[in-house]
Amino acid sequence: MQSERAGADGPDVVAVAAEEPAGDTVEQQPGPGMGRRVVRVKRKSGKATGALSRPKGGSDSGSKSISRNANKGQYDEEGSFVPPLPDSAESPDRDEKDSEETEESPELHQFREVSEVRFPGEVGPLGGHRLCKIQCVRGNWVGPLCAMNEHEQDEHGQLKFEPLYKRCVVDHIPPHLLLSYKNVSVTLGWDLPHGHTLQARCRDLGLYKLLGESKVLCSNGLWAPKMPSCVPTTLLTNYSDDSPPSIRIKVGVGSAAYEPSGVLAVLPTSTIHLDCMYPRRRGSPEWTWTGWFRQYLTGWSAVPEEKASRYRLTIKDIQNQDSGTYTCASPRGLTNSIVIIVAVSQCAGLSEPNPPLSLRLEGIKLGQRALYRCPLGYMLQGEANATCLASGNWSSPTPTCHPIQCPPLFLEDPHLSLVELNTSAWGRAVFRCAWGYRLSGPPGLECEPNGHWSGPIPRCRAIQCPQPLVPLNGRIDGTSGLTMYGQRRYAVGALVTFSCTEGHLLVGEASIVCTETGFWSHPPPFCKAQCPYPGDPPNGLIAPLKFHYDPGDYLTVQCRPGFVEHGANGGPPERPRCTPEGDWSGPVPQCRSYEEI
Length: 597
Hints:
By secondary structure, this protein is mainly beta. It has seven domains: 115-163, no CATH class; 168-232, Complement Module, domain 1; 246-342, Sandwich (Immunoglobulin-like); 358-403, Complement Module, domain 1 (Ribbon); 416-462, Complement Module, domain 1, CATH 2.10.70; 464-529, Complement Module, domain 1, CATH 2.10.70; 531-593, Complement Module, domain 1 (Ribbon), CATH 2.10.70.10. The chain contains two helices and 53 strands.
């Protein structure tokens, strides 16, 4: 099959290759804005089927251009058939006119009998290649239709084409259910074409019982039947009487593999132990099987730690005739089954993968595994272990190693910024906050080997200083704080000034600033009581002489010669004392002359 597409200035042309004897080659004459085209067509009953080509832009007048054939009628630009005119075979003038119209639209004349266009298509989640086509039906293209199997033909020896129905989307996977498509694991979001089948099995063979069909077909957008579910068995339900018995599988000699269908494929001459898990004190379960080849040894395990709960069926030197279904039924009639097929298969050898991926191969026989590993700093994309299946295929494709990258960091905090960022394994992200803010959380994160950051992104919190103590007999002036939770908080740079009430002296810094440490630049001052300088009495001096006097200070008066210290009431003088309130205990004694006494 061949396909051609015009350039930017020409029409679109799709050609169909000849399948039977090679058809004719029609040379398309160039029209306005078109290059020269050669289209291969095939003949059916003397009629050509090929490709329809139209120039871009259409005709000048907008009316339908019609190509005519005197005996077969006409086709307009929309592909509609126009019956032949009664006099089309008799009027030479009309034939000449028809010839002129045909020359004006040679494409429509050459390809007026196109019936279908074939092309290669990619169908399905794995991009399978199939031959597809569209058909011209009454002037409209119908399709696409695709060949489901290019080797399957109808009674006329032609390929069988089927319409593409709606695809099915895997929007829900029941718990513990594994889905696969052609040995590829299926996850949420997959979609399959109509007619394709998913294989279903439970995650742990024997520990869950599949409730439903193991094959699910996509039928025009719907799964038929519905997705199966996995029922937990006795080992997972603490040996509940309402649960089917669990079956544990042991391979004594040889090898076995779990197939995507949930079947246990076993290599001939292997020895298989099937243990029905049920409490011995409640009674004995029963093993049954579908084959008639031989009888099998059943009974409670003789191993001391197993004999209380494992009712065993042993298949020694297994052969093809041992293939079948093995069912364990509890005394209450609840059952669980294992399907065994005996197969001789060998998978293709695996070459050494490209670094950094490493491979350890157990072998290439049924049940043997290929173990893949990635070095530290890389993440394995795909399945780490592939098992050789009965089909001769590995259970999963070769995985790849991708460098571990932690997700990008989105900083929602406007005050937070990154100083360093390395998203590779063991890389670091280092943060800092704007001036006046402090990190709340670790200052840095590490990209761990699992591709996750070592912790959450920190946040920046405003640095705040607590409300300073108001000094006794003093006050705070010029505050610029923020009241929070009933307490006043101060941002970095806030300035606080202090003052004292009358009679008190400020001791310490009169102004303090909130720093980036969350502490004040200086401790709060305090207000110390003080007594003012009282002044010298006439004809005398006070001692000691100071601007301010502390509480407890006493004053002494020294009179000039010829004068003597005299109390206020005429009695002996009392020395004034500075009280804690900043007042003098009494007036300053006066100096009086001896003559007045």
